[in-house]
Design brief:
InterPro entries: AbfB_ABD, AbfB_ABD_sf, Glyco_hydro_beta-prop_sf, TAT_signal. This is Glycoside hydrolase family 43 protein. It comes from Streptomyces bullii. The protein is mainly beta and about 450 residues long. The protein has five helices and 34 strands. The strands form ten sheets. Strands 1, 2, 3, 4, 21 and 22 form a six-stranded antiparallel beta sheet that branches. Strand 28 and strand 29 form a beta hairpin. The protein is elongated and about 80 Å long. The protein starts with 9 loop residues before the first helix and ends with a strand.
Length: about 450
Protein backbone atom coordinates (compact mmCIF):
# COMPACT_ATOMS: atom_id res chain seq x y z
CA UNK A 1 0.00 0.00 0.00
CA UNK A 2 1.30 3.46 -0.84
CA UNK A 3 1.78 5.22 2.51
CA UNK A 4 -0.85 8.00 2.45
CA UNK A 5 -0.16 11.54 3.54
CA UNK A 6 -1.91 12.62 6.70
CA UNK A 7 -5.63 12.49 6.01
CA UNK A 8 -7.37 15.86 5.79
CA UNK A 9 -10.07 16.47 8.37
CA UNK A 10 -12.71 16.63 5.68
CA UNK A 11 -15.58 17.21 8.11
CA UNK A 12 -13.59 20.09 9.57
CA UNK A 13 -13.20 21.60 6.11
CA UNK A 14 -16.90 21.21 5.45
CA UNK A 15 -17.76 22.85 8.77
CA UNK A 16 -15.44 25.72 7.87
CA UNK A 17 -17.18 26.10 4.51
CA UNK A 18 -20.58 25.99 6.18
CA UNK A 19 -19.51 28.84 8.43
CA UNK A 20 -18.93 31.08 5.41
CA UNK A 21 -21.67 33.49 4.35
CA UNK A 22 -23.66 32.18 1.40
CA UNK A 23 -22.31 34.93 -0.82
CA UNK A 24 -18.74 33.79 -0.21
CA UNK A 25 -19.55 30.20 -1.20
CA UNK A 26 -21.53 31.18 -4.27
CA UNK A 27 -18.86 33.58 -5.46
CA UNK A 28 -16.11 31.12 -4.74
CA UNK A 29 -14.38 33.57 -2.43
CA UNK A 30 -13.55 31.10 0.29
CA UNK A 31 -10.54 32.36 2.25
CA UNK A 32 -7.23 31.80 0.52
CA UNK A 33 -8.72 30.82 -2.83
CA UNK A 34 -9.14 34.26 -4.44
CA UNK A 35 -11.08 32.66 -7.29
CA UNK A 36 -14.18 30.61 -8.07
CA UNK A 37 -13.40 27.05 -7.02
CA UNK A 38 -13.68 25.11 -3.78
CA UNK A 39 -12.30 21.75 -2.67
CA UNK A 40 -13.79 19.05 -4.90
CA UNK A 41 -12.85 17.34 -8.12
CA UNK A 42 -14.37 19.22 -11.07
CA UNK A 43 -17.52 17.60 -12.50
CA UNK A 44 -17.44 16.08 -15.96
CA UNK A 45 -17.31 18.85 -18.57
CA UNK A 46 -15.62 21.28 -16.18
CA UNK A 47 -11.99 21.80 -15.27
CA UNK A 48 -9.96 23.27 -12.44
CA UNK A 49 -7.74 26.12 -13.54
CA UNK A 50 -4.88 27.59 -11.52
CA UNK A 51 -3.28 30.81 -12.79
CA UNK A 52 0.02 32.41 -11.78
CA UNK A 53 1.64 35.64 -12.98
CA UNK A 54 5.32 35.51 -11.94
CA UNK A 55 8.07 37.93 -12.79
CA UNK A 56 11.18 36.53 -14.40
CA UNK A 57 14.43 35.61 -12.76
CA UNK A 58 16.17 37.36 -15.65
CA UNK A 59 13.84 40.36 -15.96
CA UNK A 60 11.78 42.15 -13.30
CA UNK A 61 10.24 44.47 -15.87
CA UNK A 62 7.57 42.06 -17.10
CA UNK A 63 5.51 39.00 -16.08
CA UNK A 64 4.50 35.74 -17.71
CA UNK A 65 1.10 34.08 -17.39
CA UNK A 66 0.92 30.33 -16.72
CA UNK A 67 -2.01 28.03 -16.08
CA UNK A 68 -2.40 24.51 -14.77
CA UNK A 69 -5.27 22.10 -14.13
CA UNK A 70 -3.51 20.37 -11.23
CA UNK A 71 -1.36 23.06 -9.51
CA UNK A 72 1.76 21.12 -10.56
CA UNK A 73 2.13 21.13 -14.34
CA UNK A 74 2.04 24.83 -15.25
CA UNK A 75 2.14 25.72 -18.93
CA UNK A 76 2.94 29.07 -20.45
CA UNK A 77 -0.13 30.97 -21.64
CA UNK A 78 1.64 34.16 -22.64
CA UNK A 79 5.20 35.37 -22.24
CA UNK A 80 5.73 39.01 -21.23
CA UNK A 81 1.97 39.36 -20.82
CA UNK A 82 2.20 42.64 -18.94
CA UNK A 83 4.85 45.30 -18.79
CA UNK A 84 3.96 48.36 -16.69
CA UNK A 85 4.28 51.77 -18.36
CA UNK A 86 6.96 52.76 -15.84
CA UNK A 87 9.13 51.23 -13.15
CA UNK A 88 9.29 47.47 -12.49
CA UNK A 89 6.94 44.60 -11.66
CA UNK A 90 7.90 42.13 -8.94
CA UNK A 91 5.97 39.85 -6.57
CA UNK A 92 2.70 40.03 -8.52
CA UNK A 93 -0.35 38.75 -6.58
CA UNK A 94 -3.47 37.84 -8.57
CA UNK A 95 -7.17 38.10 -7.63
CA UNK A 96 -10.41 37.16 -9.42
CA UNK A 97 -12.78 39.89 -8.25
CA UNK A 98 -16.57 39.81 -8.03
CA UNK A 99 -16.81 42.11 -11.07
CA UNK A 100 -15.41 39.29 -13.23
CA UNK A 101 -12.04 40.95 -13.78
CA UNK A 102 -8.63 39.70 -12.74
CA UNK A 103 -6.44 42.10 -10.78
CA UNK A 104 -2.76 42.05 -9.98
CA UNK A 105 -0.98 44.15 -7.41
CA UNK A 106 2.80 44.26 -7.39
CA UNK A 107 6.05 45.79 -6.16
CA UNK A 108 6.94 48.71 -8.42
CA UNK A 109 10.71 49.02 -8.00
CA UNK A 110 13.72 46.78 -7.93
CA UNK A 111 15.07 45.82 -4.52
CA UNK A 112 17.91 48.34 -4.53
CA UNK A 113 15.62 51.38 -4.96
CA UNK A 114 13.31 53.30 -2.68
CA UNK A 115 9.78 52.05 -3.39
CA UNK A 116 6.83 53.82 -1.80
CA UNK A 117 4.15 52.64 -4.23
CA UNK A 118 2.41 49.41 -5.19
CA UNK A 119 1.05 48.94 -8.70
CA UNK A 120 -2.31 47.71 -10.00
CA UNK A 121 -3.39 46.27 -13.35
CA UNK A 122 -6.57 44.59 -14.59
CA UNK A 123 -7.52 41.97 -17.19
CA UNK A 124 -10.71 40.39 -18.48
CA UNK A 125 -8.96 37.26 -19.77
CA UNK A 126 -5.71 36.87 -17.71
CA UNK A 127 -3.70 37.47 -20.89
CA UNK A 128 -4.22 41.11 -21.87
CA UNK A 129 -3.60 43.53 -19.02
CA UNK A 130 -4.32 47.23 -18.57
CA UNK A 131 -2.37 49.39 -16.15
CA UNK A 132 -4.63 51.03 -13.57
CA UNK A 133 -2.53 53.09 -11.18
CA UNK A 134 0.37 53.21 -8.75
CA UNK A 135 -0.75 53.71 -5.17
CA UNK A 136 1.45 55.52 -2.64
CA UNK A 137 1.20 53.66 0.65
CA UNK A 138 0.50 56.34 3.29
CA UNK A 139 3.07 55.49 5.97
CA UNK A 140 5.26 58.25 7.41
CA UNK A 141 8.91 58.07 6.37
CA UNK A 142 8.19 55.06 4.16
CA UNK A 143 11.25 53.62 2.45
CA UNK A 144 9.94 50.46 0.78
CA UNK A 145 6.54 48.87 0.16
CA UNK A 146 7.09 45.34 -1.06
CA UNK A 147 5.25 42.14 -1.91
CA UNK A 148 1.58 43.19 -1.75
CA UNK A 149 -0.63 40.10 -1.31
CA UNK A 150 -4.39 39.92 -1.87
CA UNK A 151 -6.59 38.54 0.89
CA UNK A 152 -10.39 38.12 0.68
CA UNK A 153 -12.03 37.69 4.06
CA UNK A 154 -15.06 35.49 4.72
CA UNK A 155 -17.33 38.56 4.67
CA UNK A 156 -16.22 39.28 1.09
CA UNK A 157 -14.07 42.29 2.02
CA UNK A 158 -10.92 42.68 -0.06
CA UNK A 159 -7.56 43.43 1.55
CA UNK A 160 -3.89 43.72 0.70
CA UNK A 161 -1.08 42.75 3.05
CA UNK A 162 2.02 44.75 2.16
CA UNK A 163 5.48 44.60 3.73
CA UNK A 164 6.80 48.06 4.58
CA UNK A 165 9.99 49.56 5.95
CA UNK A 166 10.80 53.12 6.98
CA UNK A 167 13.79 55.35 6.34
CA UNK A 168 15.24 54.86 9.81
CA UNK A 169 15.88 51.18 8.89
CA UNK A 170 15.11 50.43 5.27
CA UNK A 171 15.66 46.65 5.58
CA UNK A 172 13.38 45.99 8.58
CA UNK A 173 9.93 45.16 7.23
CA UNK A 174 6.57 44.98 9.01
CA UNK A 175 3.33 43.61 7.49
CA UNK A 176 0.52 46.16 7.10
CA UNK A 177 -3.11 45.65 6.13
CA UNK A 178 -4.98 47.80 3.61
CA UNK A 179 -8.75 47.35 3.13
CA UNK A 180 -10.51 48.27 -0.12
CA UNK A 181 -13.14 50.92 0.62
CA UNK A 182 -14.87 50.65 -2.75
CA UNK A 183 -15.77 47.82 -5.11
CA UNK A 184 -13.55 49.13 -7.90
CA UNK A 185 -10.46 48.63 -5.74
CA UNK A 186 -9.26 52.20 -6.19
CA UNK A 187 -9.57 53.48 -2.61
CA UNK A 188 -7.93 52.03 0.47
CA UNK A 189 -8.09 52.40 4.24
CA UNK A 190 -5.19 53.67 6.28
CA UNK A 191 -2.53 50.99 6.81
CA UNK A 192 -2.74 48.95 10.02
CA UNK A 193 0.19 46.87 11.22
CA UNK A 194 -0.58 43.20 11.85
CA UNK A 195 -0.09 42.95 15.60
CA UNK A 196 2.05 40.12 16.93
CA UNK A 197 3.96 39.26 13.78
CA UNK A 198 6.34 42.08 14.46
CA UNK A 199 9.16 43.73 12.59
CA UNK A 200 11.61 41.97 10.30
CA UNK A 201 8.94 39.82 8.66
CA UNK A 202 8.14 40.02 4.95
CA UNK A 203 5.97 38.33 2.31
CA UNK A 204 3.10 37.65 4.73
CA UNK A 205 0.32 35.50 3.22
CA UNK A 206 -3.01 34.90 4.98
CA UNK A 207 -5.55 32.07 4.90
CA UNK A 208 -8.72 31.96 6.99
CA UNK A 209 -10.26 28.66 8.07
CA UNK A 210 -13.39 28.88 10.19
CA UNK A 211 -12.74 31.73 12.63
CA UNK A 212 -8.94 31.46 12.61
CA UNK A 213 -6.53 33.49 10.51
CA UNK A 214 -3.37 31.64 9.51
CA UNK A 215 -0.31 33.66 8.53
CA UNK A 216 2.76 32.42 6.68
CA UNK A 217 5.59 34.95 6.80
CA UNK A 218 9.31 35.05 6.12
CA UNK A 219 11.60 35.91 9.02
CA UNK A 220 14.24 38.12 7.42
CA UNK A 221 16.83 37.26 10.06
CA UNK A 222 16.65 33.47 9.90
CA UNK A 223 15.35 33.31 6.29
CA UNK A 224 12.77 30.68 7.33
CA UNK A 225 9.04 30.82 6.62
CA UNK A 226 7.23 31.04 9.96
CA UNK A 227 3.63 30.27 10.88
CA UNK A 228 1.27 32.32 13.08
CA UNK A 229 -2.44 32.35 13.97
CA UNK A 230 -4.95 34.92 15.23
CA UNK A 231 -8.64 35.21 16.00
CA UNK A 232 -8.79 38.66 14.37
CA UNK A 233 -7.56 39.79 10.97
CA UNK A 234 -5.30 42.48 12.40
CA UNK A 235 -4.16 40.27 15.29
CA UNK A 236 -2.70 39.87 17.74
CA UNK A 237 -1.00 36.96 15.97
CA UNK A 238 0.89 34.30 17.89
CA UNK A 239 3.89 32.89 16.07
CA UNK A 240 3.56 29.14 16.58
CA UNK A 241 6.25 27.66 14.36
CA UNK A 242 9.76 28.95 13.74
CA UNK A 243 13.00 27.67 12.29
CA UNK A 244 12.82 24.73 9.91
CA UNK A 245 9.52 23.55 11.44
CA UNK A 246 8.04 22.33 8.12
CA UNK A 247 11.22 20.92 6.57
CA UNK A 248 11.30 23.51 3.80
CA UNK A 249 14.79 24.77 4.56
CA UNK A 250 16.18 28.29 4.83
CA UNK A 251 16.47 31.10 2.29
CA UNK A 252 12.82 30.66 1.33
CA UNK A 253 10.36 33.47 0.62
CA UNK A 254 7.12 34.41 -1.11
CA UNK A 255 4.80 31.79 0.47
CA UNK A 256 1.44 31.45 -1.30
CA UNK A 257 -1.26 28.89 -0.51
CA UNK A 258 -4.13 27.39 -2.47
CA UNK A 259 -6.59 24.62 -1.66
CA UNK A 260 -6.39 21.55 -3.89
CA UNK A 261 -9.30 19.59 -5.33
CA UNK A 262 -8.95 16.89 -2.66
CA UNK A 263 -9.22 19.37 0.23
CA UNK A 264 -5.51 19.54 1.04
CA UNK A 265 -3.53 22.76 0.99
CA UNK A 266 -0.51 23.47 -1.18
CA UNK A 267 2.10 26.09 -0.39
CA UNK A 268 4.37 27.47 -3.10
CA UNK A 269 7.55 29.32 -2.18
CA UNK A 270 10.57 30.83 -3.86
CA UNK A 271 13.81 29.03 -3.00
CA UNK A 272 15.85 32.05 -3.96
CA UNK A 273 18.88 30.71 -2.13
CA UNK A 274 19.28 27.86 -4.62
CA UNK A 275 17.42 29.38 -7.59
CA UNK A 276 14.50 26.93 -7.44
CA UNK A 277 10.75 27.12 -6.87
CA UNK A 278 9.06 24.60 -4.57
CA UNK A 279 5.71 23.31 -3.40
CA UNK A 280 4.63 21.28 -0.37
CA UNK A 281 1.25 19.88 0.77
CA UNK A 282 -0.58 19.68 4.09
CA UNK A 283 -3.62 17.62 5.11
CA UNK A 284 -3.84 18.40 8.82
CA UNK A 285 -4.56 22.14 9.00
CA UNK A 286 -0.94 23.12 8.41
CA UNK A 287 0.59 21.02 11.22
CA UNK A 288 2.75 18.84 8.97
CA UNK A 289 3.89 19.13 5.36
CA UNK A 290 5.16 16.87 2.61
CA UNK A 291 8.79 17.09 1.59
CA UNK A 292 9.26 20.09 -0.71
CA UNK A 293 9.32 19.25 -4.40
CA UNK A 294 10.60 21.40 -7.24
CA UNK A 295 7.84 22.88 -9.40
CA UNK A 296 8.25 21.70 -13.01
CA UNK A 297 8.59 24.23 -15.84
CA UNK A 298 8.54 27.26 -13.51
CA UNK A 299 11.47 26.47 -11.23
CA UNK A 300 14.67 28.26 -12.13
CA UNK A 301 13.07 30.80 -14.44
CA UNK A 302 10.25 32.52 -12.54
CA UNK A 303 9.94 34.29 -9.19
CA UNK A 304 7.43 35.11 -6.43
CA UNK A 305 3.78 34.60 -7.35
CA UNK A 306 0.38 33.86 -5.83
CA UNK A 307 -2.30 31.60 -7.30
CA UNK A 308 -5.91 32.08 -8.36
CA UNK A 309 -8.04 28.94 -8.61
CA UNK A 310 -11.23 28.62 -10.67
CA UNK A 311 -13.61 25.99 -11.97
CA UNK A 312 -14.20 26.65 -15.66
CA UNK A 313 -16.28 25.10 -18.42
CA UNK A 314 -14.88 23.14 -21.35
CA UNK A 315 -13.23 20.40 -19.33
CA UNK A 316 -12.94 16.74 -20.34
CA UNK A 317 -16.00 14.49 -20.36
CA UNK A 318 -16.23 10.83 -19.37
CA UNK A 319 -19.54 9.06 -18.77
CA UNK A 320 -20.02 6.98 -15.63
CA UNK A 321 -21.70 3.62 -15.13
CA UNK A 322 -20.63 2.44 -18.57
CA UNK A 323 -17.99 -0.03 -19.74
CA UNK A 324 -15.00 1.30 -21.64
CA UNK A 325 -11.58 0.30 -22.85
CA UNK A 326 -8.67 2.73 -22.66
CA UNK A 327 -6.18 3.12 -25.50
CA UNK A 328 -2.78 4.74 -25.11
CA UNK A 329 -2.70 8.14 -26.82
CA UNK A 330 0.87 7.66 -28.07
CA UNK A 331 0.95 3.88 -28.57
CA UNK A 332 -2.32 3.47 -30.39
CA UNK A 333 -2.37 -0.34 -30.59
CA UNK A 334 -1.94 -0.72 -26.84
CA UNK A 335 -4.68 -0.75 -24.21
CA UNK A 336 -5.15 -1.02 -20.46
CA UNK A 337 -5.31 -4.68 -19.52
CA UNK A 338 -5.41 -6.43 -16.17
CA UNK A 339 -2.74 -9.13 -15.92
CA UNK A 340 -2.38 -11.05 -12.64
CA UNK A 341 -4.10 -8.14 -10.84
CA UNK A 342 -1.66 -5.58 -12.31
CA UNK A 343 -2.56 -3.01 -14.92
CA UNK A 344 -0.36 -3.21 -18.02
CA UNK A 345 -0.44 -1.89 -21.58
CA UNK A 346 -0.21 -4.76 -24.09
CA UNK A 347 -1.29 -4.77 -27.72
CA UNK A 348 -4.98 -5.65 -28.08
CA UNK A 349 -6.65 -6.26 -31.42
CA UNK A 350 -9.63 -7.92 -33.01
CA UNK A 351 -7.66 -11.18 -33.05
CA UNK A 352 -7.03 -11.08 -29.27
CA UNK A 353 -8.66 -13.82 -27.22
CA UNK A 354 -11.99 -13.33 -25.47
CA UNK A 355 -10.19 -13.43 -22.13
CA UNK A 356 -7.76 -10.71 -23.23
CA UNK A 357 -10.61 -8.52 -24.43
CA UNK A 358 -12.48 -9.05 -21.17
CA UNK A 359 -9.35 -8.12 -19.21
CA UNK A 360 -9.19 -4.90 -21.25
CA UNK A 361 -12.74 -3.85 -20.40
CA UNK A 362 -13.63 -1.82 -17.31
CA UNK A 363 -16.68 -0.22 -15.75
CA UNK A 364 -16.32 3.51 -15.12
CA UNK A 365 -18.00 4.54 -11.86
CA UNK A 366 -18.13 7.56 -9.56
CA UNK A 367 -15.01 8.00 -7.47
CA UNK A 368 -15.10 6.12 -4.18
CA UNK A 369 -13.63 9.11 -2.32
CA UNK A 370 -15.20 11.91 -4.38
CA UNK A 371 -18.28 11.48 -6.54
CA UNK A 372 -16.94 13.98 -9.06
CA UNK A 373 -13.85 11.82 -9.49
CA UNK A 374 -13.59 8.40 -11.14
CA UNK A 375 -13.02 4.82 -10.11
CA UNK A 376 -12.63 1.75 -12.35
CA UNK A 377 -13.98 -1.73 -11.71
CA UNK A 378 -13.04 -4.99 -13.41
CA UNK A 379 -15.42 -7.83 -14.28
CA UNK A 380 -14.82 -9.47 -10.88
CA UNK A 381 -15.79 -6.30 -9.01
CA UNK A 382 -12.25 -5.33 -7.98
CA UNK A 383 -11.14 -1.70 -8.21
CA UNK A 384 -8.14 -0.07 -9.83
CA UNK A 385 -5.96 1.48 -7.13
CA UNK A 386 -2.30 2.34 -6.54
CA UNK A 387 -0.07 0.31 -4.23
CA UNK A 388 3.56 1.39 -3.95
CA UNK A 389 2.61 3.60 -6.89
CA UNK A 390 1.92 0.57 -9.09
CA UNK A 391 -1.56 0.36 -10.65
CA UNK A 392 -3.37 -2.84 -9.66
CA UNK A 393 -6.84 -4.27 -8.94
CA UNK A 394 -7.97 -5.22 -5.44
CA UNK A 395 -11.22 -5.87 -3.61
CA UNK A 396 -12.61 -2.80 -1.86
CA UNK A 397 -11.88 -3.19 1.86
CA UNK A 398 -14.16 -0.29 2.79
CA UNK A 399 -11.42 1.91 4.26
CA UNK A 400 -10.97 5.58 3.45
CA UNK A 401 -7.40 4.83 2.38
CA UNK A 402 -8.60 2.35 -0.23
CA UNK A 403 -11.26 4.79 -1.45
CA UNK A 404 -8.64 7.48 -1.98
CA UNK A 405 -6.15 5.07 -3.57
CA UNK A 406 -8.91 4.03 -5.99
CA UNK A 407 -10.10 7.53 -6.93
CA UNK A 408 -8.75 9.56 -9.83
CA UNK A 409 -9.43 13.11 -11.00
CA UNK A 410 -10.16 13.59 -14.69
CA UNK A 411 -7.83 15.99 -16.51
CA UNK A 412 -7.49 16.88 -20.18
CA UNK A 413 -5.15 14.73 -22.28
CA UNK A 414 -2.70 15.74 -24.98
CA UNK A 415 -4.46 14.25 -28.02
CA UNK A 416 -7.98 14.90 -29.24
CA UNK A 417 -10.44 12.83 -27.23
CA UNK A 418 -7.82 11.78 -24.69
CA UNK A 419 -7.91 12.24 -20.93
CA UNK A 420 -5.50 11.92 -18.01
CA UNK A 421 -6.14 10.47 -14.55
CA UNK A 422 -4.57 12.23 -11.58
CA UNK A 423 -4.27 10.42 -8.27
CA UNK A 424 -6.82 11.80 -5.81
CA UNK A 425 -4.63 11.45 -2.72
CA UNK A 426 -1.29 12.18 -4.39
CA UNK A 427 -1.94 15.35 -6.41
CA UNK A 428 0.49 15.79 -9.29
CA UNK A 429 0.87 12.02 -9.79
CA UNK A 430 -0.79 10.45 -12.82
CA UNK A 431 -1.56 7.06 -14.23
CA UNK A 432 1.10 6.71 -16.90
CA UNK A 433 2.75 3.89 -18.80
CA UNK A 434 6.42 3.07 -18.38
CA UNK A 435 7.84 -0.07 -20.01
CA UNK A 436 4.19 -0.85 -20.80
CA UNK A 437 3.29 -0.99 -17.12
CA UNK A 438 0.83 1.44 -15.54
CA UNK A 439 2.17 3.42 -12.59
CA UNK A 440 1.16 6.50 -10.61
CA UNK A 441 4.16 8.77 -11.23
CA UNK A 442 4.82 12.45 -10.50
CA UNK A 443 4.47 14.84 -13.40
CA UNK A 444 7.79 16.23 -14.60
CA UNK A 445 6.21 18.88 -16.82
CA UNK A 446 7.48 17.38 -20.08
CA UNK A 447 5.48 16.70 -23.23
CA UNK A 448 6.55 13.06 -23.11
CA UNK A 449 5.10 12.57 -19.64
CA UNK A 450 1.82 14.19 -20.72
CA UNK A 451 1.68 11.84 -23.72
CA UNK A 452 2.53 8.76 -21.63
CA UNK A 453 -0.25 9.67 -19.20
CA UNK A 454 -2.92 10.34 -21.85
CA UNK A 455 -5.49 7.69 -22.75
CA UNK A 456 -8.46 7.59 -25.11
CA UNK A 457 -11.71 6.06 -23.77
CA UNK A 458 -13.12 3.84 -26.54
CA UNK A 459 -15.87 1.31 -27.05
CA UNK A 460 -15.28 -1.64 -24.75
CA UNK A 461 -13.55 -4.68 -26.22
CA UNK A 462 -15.97 -6.99 -24.41
Amino acid sequence: MTPPPATPARRTLLRAMAALPASAVLLGEAPGLLGSALAAAPPSGSATRYTIVPFLNSDDGTVNVYQSDDATDFRLVKASAYTPPRNRIRDASILKHTDGFYYITYTTHTWQDTSTTIGFARSSDRVNWTFLYDYTVPIANLSRAWAPEWFVDSDGSVHIIVSCSTTNDQWIFTPYLLRATNSSLTAWSSPVALSGIGANHIDTFLVKLGSTYHAFTKNETTKYIEYATAASLTGPYTIRRTGDWAGWGSYREGPALVQLDNGGWRIFFDGYGDGSYYYSDSYDTFATWSAPAELPAVSGTDRHFTVVKETVSGGPVLAKNVTRSFRSANYTTRYWQEQSSLLNLPVVSASSTTAEKQASTFTVVAGLADGNGYSFRDAAGKYLRHWDFRARFDANDGTSTFAKDATFVLRAGTASGSVRFESYNYPGRYLRHYSYQLRVDPSDGTDLFRQDSSFVPVTAWA
